[in-house]
Amino acid sequence: MSAPLPPLVDAVVAALLVFGGAFALVGAFGLAKLGDFLKRLHGPTKVTTLGIGSILVASMLWFGLRGGAPPAHELLITLFVFITAPVAAHMMVKGAMAIDDSTKPPPPPERPHDAG
Amino acid sequence: MLFALIALPFAAALALMLAPRAGRNLSAWTVGLAALAGLAILFVLAPAVFGGEVLRARAPWIEAIGLEFFIRIDGWAWLFAFLVLGIGALIVLYARWYLAPEDPPRRFFAYLALFMGAMLGITLAGNLLLLIVFWELTSISSFLLIGFWGRRHEARAGARMALAVTGGGGLALLAGVLVIGHIVGSYDLDLVLASGELIRSHPLYVPALVLVLLGAFAKSAQFPFHFWLPHAMAAPTPVSAYLHSATMVKAGVFLLARLHPALAGSTEWLLIVSAIGLSTLVLGAVAAVFQQDLKGLLAYSTISHLGLITLLFGLGSPLAVVAGVFHILNHATFKASLFMAAGIIDHETGTRDLRRLGGLYAAMPITGTLAIVASLAMAGVPLLNGFLSKEMFLAETLAFESWPSYQLAVPVLAVFAGICSVAYSARFVHETFFGPKGHPPKTPHEPPRLMRVPVEILVVLCLAVGILPNLVVADLLALGAGGVLQGPLPDYHLAIWHGFNWPLAMSAISLAGGLALYAILHRRGIARRIDLLSRGKIAFEGIVAALIGLAQRVTRTLETGRIQGYLLWLLAFILLVGASPFVDLAAPLSTKPAQPAGPMAVGLWLLIVAGALTVTVAYRRRLVAVIAMGIVGLGVSLVFALLSAPDLALTQLLVDMVTTVLLLMALRYLPAISPPEPERLARWRDGAIAVAAGLGTTAIVYMVLTRPHPSIAEYILATTMSEAGGANAVNTVIVDYRGFDTLGEITVFAIAGIVIYALLDRVRLTALTPFAAKGPAPHSLLLNLCAQLILPLAVAVSAYLFLRGHNAPGGGFIAGLVLAIALILQYIAAGSEWVDERLDHDWNRWIGAGLLAAAATGIGAFAFAHPFLTSSTPHVHLPLVGEIHLASAMGFDTGVYLVVFAACLLMLAMLGKVSRWEARD
After folding, report:
1. pTM (2 decimals)?
2. Which residues of chain A are within 8 Å of residue B770 when distances are taken between CB atoms?
C-alpha cells in the first residue's frame, strides 16, 4: 500500500461517487414513475451513462492514484457498457414498436406537393 | 478343445452377423459346419467319455459369486450335446430348403447358431450359475426364433408368451440354484452331485426343490405351464422341429436328469415330479387328439411325451431313469422327423389345417412313408424305437410302489395316454395322407430332394434303433444313463421281445384301443369339430392384462402431468425423512458464535429476500417471476463473490443467464398470467409444505455451518498441487477428487438435453404470448453486428478460462457456459436459421463426443494400471509458450466443456426450432 492520497483527491472521488449514486437513484425513480414506455427508457440510460460513468471514474482515480495496477478493469467495463447500453436500448425500442403501435413515430406530415 | 466345442456355434453366429451379404447357402454352411465341427470334437472326445472319464476344463469368470466357466463332460452331457449338435446339423440342412427367399437367412441362421450354442452350454456347464446363464440365453434366443416372422401377430404373441413363461421359470431356477449353492457351499456340479444326502436332509431342501422344478417344468412345458408350447408353433417349422422336439423343451428334463443324484430320492420329489408328469402326460395326449393344426397336434403330443419323461424321472428308480434317457433319445428322433414332415406338408400345400388336408399320399409318397413310419414310432408300434422305451415305461409304471390308489392310477392312466397317443398318431397319418382329397391352397408335390434327407436319416434311425437296439443304441444309452445316475447302472437289456408279459399286454391294449377310439371319432366326425385349445393362454393373457391394468392405474394415479403434484410428493417425503432427526434433537442449533455480517452481506441478503418474495407474490405473472428469479440468481452470485468463491460466482452468473434466456423462450408458449390455484385448502397446504421445506433446509445449513467439524477442505487444499496437479482446488475437486461425480452429473445433463430434444422434436405448439400475433421479431442490424464482434472475443475468453481453469478460476464448466452464451447471442441476434447454416448444429453428436472424451480419460487410467479416473500430471515445456501443465484431467475437463456447451445449445436450438414450426392459424 502506498501513502494516503491528498485530501483533494479524496474529495473528488467522494463527490463522483455521490454524483453517480444520485443519478442511479434518479434513473431508477424515473423508470418507476414516468408515463409511457419511451419516456421510461430515459431512466436506465441516465444510470448507465452518468451514474455508472461517474462511479467508474471515481474507481479509476482512487485505485490508479494509490499506485495499484493501471485501471484496465474500469476501461474494459466502460467499453462493454458503451457497447451494450445503446444496443439494449435500441432493441427495447424496436421491440416496443413492434408490439405497441402507439410507440411508433407519427408518419411524416403531408407536405404540399411543390410543382416543378 | 472343450472351449472350442462351446465357442463354435457362437463364433458361427458372430461370423454371420459380420457378413451382411451372406445368402441362404453361405449362412447354412456356416452354421452347419459349426455343428459338424462340434460333432467331430465330440467324436474325438468319445473314447475318453465312453471309458468312463469325466472331462473338465475351467476358466475363471466371476470368482466373487462363485461363477466359473467350467465345462464338464460326462456321459450324460456328451449324449445330450450329441443330440443337440446332431439334430442341429440336420435342422440346418432342412432349414436351408425350408426358408422362403424373402426370409432373411442370415438372421435366421445366426439365431439358430446362438440357440445351438446356448443349448450346448446348458449341457456342458459344470457350474450351476453358468448353466443358468446359458439357460436364460436359450430363453432369449428361442424368443428370437419363435418370433422370427415378427410381422405376424401370433408369432409375436407366441414368442412373448414363451419368453415370459420360460424366462420366469428361469428366475425361479436361479433362486433354486442359489439355495442349492447355499446348502452345498459351491455351485460346482461335481460337488453338488456328490452332496445329495446333504441337500436332501437340509431344511431348505423343499424350497430349493420346488424352485428348481418350477424352472424345469416351465421350460419343459409341464402342466400347468404347458400352454406356451402350442403357441410357440407360430415359429418357422425348423425352429419347432429343433426347439420343441429335441432341445429347448428337453432342457427341463435334461435338468431333472442332471440334478437327479442331488435332488431325487425323496418323497417330495416322487410326489411332485411324478404327479406333474402324469397329469401332463394325460392332458397333452387328450388335447393332441382334438387339434386341427398339424403342428398343434405335434405340440400337444410333445407335451404329453415330456410328461412321460418327467414321470419316469419322478418314479426315481434307476431303471426308470434309464427308460427316461432312452425315451428322450427316441422322442427327439421321431418328433423331429415328424415336425419336419409337417413342415414339408405345410411348405408344399400351404396349409397345416387337418380339415383341409387329406389324400396326400398319392402326391408325396416318399414323405408320406417317412411320416407314417415316424408316427408309428410315436404311437409305440413294435419294431420302432418308440415301442422299446414305451415298453420300459409301462414296465416301470407297474413296478412303481406307492399308496395303493396312486400305484393303481399310474399304469391305468399310462395306458389311457397310450390309447390317446395311438389315436392322434392315427389321425395325423390318416387325415393327412389318406381319405378324401383335401383342398389345400397349393397343389402338393414332393419337396426338394435335400429337404427330405434329414427326415430320412431320422426315420432310418427310428427303424434301426427299433430293430437292432443292442447294436445301435445300447452303448449310448448306457453312457447317458450312467452320467445321470453317477453310479452303477441297473440290470436291464434292450430287446423287442420280452415274452408275454404285462407291458406287452398294455401296449396291445393301447394300440387296439387307440385305433378303435380314432375310428369312432372319425366316423362321427367328432375330432374335427372340437378344437381343444388350452385355457392356459386365456389365463396367461388375463394375468398379463391385469398386470398392465394395474400398472396403468398406478401410473395414472401417480403421473398426473401436474408438476405441483410430483413436487408435493417429493417434498412431503423429503420433509418426513429430513424432519425425523429433529424430533428428538438434543444438540443445540449452534455450538459456535456466528460470524458478524457486514453491511454488504446484509444488503445482498435483503436483495435476495426481496427477489424471492417477489417471485412468491407475483408468480402468476410469469414474466415478472422470471425477472425476479434473475435478481435472486444475481444476488446469489454476488454472495459467492463476496465470500471469495470466484468459480462459484462465475458459474452462478452464467447459469443464471442461460436459464433466464431459456425461460423467456419457453414463456412464449405459456399464458402470460397463469391460472389461479383452484382450491384455497390446497394453496394453504402447498404453502405450509414450502415454508416447512425452506425452514428445514435453513436449519440444516445453519447447524452444519455453526459447529466445528473436521472438514475435508484442509486435506484437499493441502494436496491439490501434489495429488491433482492444480492450484484451483474448486476445479481439481470437480475433475479429480470427485471426478466420478462429475462424470455422473454431465451424463445427467447430457440426458436432460437429449430428453428435451426428444420432447420438442417435431412438437407443434401455439404461441400464447400476445406479441406473437404481431408477426416475427424485428431484426436489428446493430445487435447483429455487435454480436458478431463479440463472438471471437467470447471464444477467446472461453478458451482462456478453460486453459487456466486448473490453476485459477475457470474450467470446463464455466468455459462451456461462456461459449454457449456467446452463441445464444448469435441465435438471438441473427435467428436460428442463420446460425444453423454456419455451424455444425448436430448438438447430440457434440454431447456424445464430450461424454466419450470424459469417459475415455477415465478409462485411460487403466492403461497405466491405475483405478478409473486417476489423473496424471506431466509437465511439458514448449518453446515460446513456456511451462505447460498437462494434467490428464484436462481431457476430462474437455468432456465437461463439450457436454455443457452442447447441451445448453441443444436446449436452446430446440426451443428455437419449435418457434419456427409454430402452428399458425
Report:
1. 0.69
2. 99
